[in-house]
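Entry:
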Amino acid sequence: MVQISGELGYPTGLIMDEALSLWIEGRTIPKSRDFAAFRVEVTNQLIKDFHWDASKVNASKLELLQLLEGEIEWAMDRDPNGLFAGFYRLDLGEEVIREILESHDRPRAVQMLAKRSLERAAFKVWTRWTF
């Protein structure tokens, strides 16, 4: 296993690599895997769970966290059922979503939901790789 270090409790506005590095703090990944592969698999997990078009995501110039925030913001108004289905497939948890939406203004809630979605996708990938 390879140890990847970082800091706990990161602020909003980070790029995906920083956010993933900070998330993986204290966790290990198999030696046969590297951070670049982890990033790709987390992206693929989000594409799968939110039913995104992989070619559009891969062609996007936006950082994945920015893209995730934009998609959440858009879907809250135009496709809330699809958005919540994505959260369900990601296994984000109704209580987590409800607490975020009720306790924060919309821009902050969108940021937090994007961060939690990224963390959950990272956890799913890390769990598959580790166990």
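Helices lie at 16-23, 35-50, 54-59, 64-78, 80-90, 94-103, 106-130.
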